[in-house]
Amino acid sequence: MTDLLTHIETQPPEVLDAIARSMNVRAAEPAMQSICARYMGEIVIRGANALEVGCGNGAATKLLMQHVKPARLVGVDPCSLFVNMASEAFKGEPRVSFALGDAASTGQPDASFDLVIAHTVYSHLVDPKSALTEAWRVLKPGGQLVIFDGDFATLAMALFDDDPMQSAVDAVLRNLVHAPYIMRQLPALVSAAGFRVESLQPHGYVQTTSPDYLLTLLSRGTTAACRAGEIGQMLVDGFEREAERRVASGTFYGAMLFLSLTARKTNDALTTGVPRRFPRGSARSPPKVSGRSLRYREGSRP
Ligand SMILES: C[S@@+](CC[C@H](N)C(=O)[O-])C[C@H]1O[C@@H](n2cnc3c(N)ncnc32)[C@H](O)[C@@H]1O
Asked: How many whole angstroms from 8 Cα to the centroid of ligand 1?
C-alpha cells in the first residue's frame, strides 16, 4: 500500500490542504458528530490529562474537548503544517497545546497521561506495535487507551455487481489507507502489548444525500492514483462526475463501519508485563461477541 499519510511530511502543500479540508468536512458532518458524541461520551476518565496522537489540524480535538472535557490535552502529529493549524485553531485555549510527534515517539514523559486517544490514525500507521508500546509508556497505571478508526475494508459505494464506482473505492484504499483491516487486528495487538481490552464497539456510517466526506475521500484517492500513474485525469473526472450525478439523482450510496476500541493499562499488567493468553473454555476466556458490541466486563480478565 502507498498511503500518502504514512509519509505526510513529504506531501506537497495542495495535498496537505486537501487532507486538512477533508478533516474539517468529516468533523462537521452530523453523522460523524453523533458517532463521536457516542463513543467519546463513553470515555470515563474526565477532568484528566489527555494525549491525542495524530491530532492533525485539530478538527477532532474540538469534539474531544466538547465530549471528554479533559483538564489538559496535548496533541501530537508528525506534520508541522497540521500542528501549526491546530495551534492557531486553539489560540487562547490554555488547556490545549500541540507539538510535533509520532505515534511511536510522542516526546512526552513516562506515565504522564490518564488518556491516550487516536482518532482515525491507526489505519495510517506502518508500525502499530511501536505506537502501542509508546501509548503504554506515556499512560499512567490505570490509564485508558482509546482507538477509533474506519474498518476501511468495509468501505462500499457499489450499487450493483461490478459497479465501476467500487474501483474508485479500491483506488482510495490503495493510495490513502495503509492498513484497511487494522481495527479487526487491534484487539489482539492491544492485548499483546499488555493492555486489558474493555470494549470494541461498532459505529455504522451510511451516506446517501450529503456524502461530503466520502466525496472528498473519493476525490483525494483517485487524484492520488492519477499522481501515482495508475489512472488518467479523465477517469478521475469521470468518477467525480458519476458521484455527483448519483447525489443529484438521489442514487448515491456510500457506507463504512467505524470501530472504537477501549483498553486499560492495568496494574497487574504493569507488574507482569506479559501478553495475556486465554485458554479455551476457561473462566479467563474473553467474552463472546454478542449484540452490537464486544464488551469485556471489568474484572473478567486476568
Ligand atoms: C486522517 S488524519 C486524522 C487527523 C485527526 N485525528 C482527525 O480525525 O481530524 C490522520 C493523521 O495521522 C497523522 N499521522 C500520520 N502518520 C502518523 C504517525 N506515524 N504518528 C502519528 N500521527 C500520524 C497524519 O499527519 C494525520 O494528521
From this structure: 9
pLDDT band at residue 268 using 50, 70 and 90 as cut-offs: low
In a domain, 196, yes or no: yes
**pLDDT tens digits, residue range 115-160?**
999 999 999 999 999 999 999 999 999 999 999 999 999 999 999 9
Answer whether residue 77 is part of any domain.
Answer: yes
Average pLDDT over residues 206-216: 95
Give the domain extent around 98.
4-266
- pLDDT at residue 4, rounded to an integer: 66
Question: Looking at the domain assignment, is residue 290 inside a domain?
Answer: no
Sign of the dihedral through C-alpha 99, 100, 105, 107 = negative
77 lines ligand 1 (CB under 6 A): yes
- Residues 107/162, Cβ–Cβ less than 8 Å: no
Whole-number Å distance, alpha carbon 6 to ligand 1 midpoint, is: 9
Q: Cell numbers 466486563 label which residue?
A: 297
Does the C-beta of 119 come closer than 6 Å to ligand 1? yes
Distances (CA, A) of 165 to 25, 73, 97, 156, 243: 21, 40, 41, 9, 8
| Closest C-alpha to ligand 1, atom 4 | 56
CA of 121 to the centre of ligand 1 (A): 5
| Distance (Å) from CA 237 to ligand 1 centroid | 27
Q: Quote the number of domains for the chain.
A: 1
Specify the CATH number for the domain of residue 125.
Answer: 3.40.50.150
Max CA-CA distance within the chain? Answer: 60
In a domain, 127, yes or no: yes
Its pTM stands at: 0.88
